[in-house]
Amino acid sequence: MSAPFEAILLSRPFKFLIGVDEIEIVVHEEAIASQSPALEALMRGKMSESASRVATWVDVGRETFVRFAQFAYTGDYSVPKMIVSCQVPQPEQCEKATEVEKDLWAIEAPPTDDWASVFAARVKDKKKKKGAQLTNRERSRSLQTADYTIFDKSQVYALLQPRSKFADSCDPEIIDGPEENNITEALLSHTLLYILAEKWGIDSLKMLTLFKLHRTLSMLVLDSPKVPHVMELVRHGYAGTPDLETGIDGLRDLLCQYVAANVKIMSEHEAFLALIQDGGTFVRDLWKRVLPRIG
């Protein structure tokens, strides 16, 4: 449950030193501490960070922390548009990519009849029913009655800006661009945030990052030149997530599903073969998903 905005605004400032350069970022304590019990203990418990109101996160990059803070304050986070050269979506993928949620702030255009026209019509109708001209006193009473009892529930107001100022930057999007693309950066924006959420037990953020990463991968038309980007994603994902005794971590599961579904294209690239030769938990998890497809 999100903390009330007033509680966030009135909470004490807390400083984070981010990355190897120890970039100072100051946030409201309530916004971050309310995300998980682990963060609550860090910022309000008996740790030295709570007393000094300073925490050092060397293993977190600036961009990742900014997205985390944005999520803590707004419930969502902005992502870079993935720039891909000469991407030609398949019909099914194109259809999925264009399905976006309706903006909560989007409203229909105001109806043509306003309060004035409704009021005039009702007064005119009353005159016809009476069949005679109203006296000044009756007309005054009619005006007062109409003014205070007629409430046009269909009246709408066109908003001048979205209710969320960052809504346009939060949905994953792929655009055509130059040969020098940013596929790895776009994919890791979700992965690194998931790793942070996993470390500090922020389940809601973990699910949001999986949702966005899944959507991004679904929109990406995979071919041989893109395989190294996916392999880099797999390396980071497995390096930053735990090997569970039972089951499999959510990010690892998503990555294995994607690789297994595209194993034919993957198997023709050296980057994939190099990762397979390294062995480890990724090969084990991938084999469990590829085997049913073979059988």
Automatic annotation (TrEMBL):
Residue stretches making up the BTB domain: 14-81
Entries under InterPro entries matching the protein: BTB/POZ_dom (IPR000210), SKP1/BTB/POZ_sf (IPR011333)
Name of protein: BTB domain-containing protein
Organism: Hyaloscypha hepaticicola
Organism classification: Eukaryota, Fungi, Dikarya, Ascomycota, Pezizomycotina
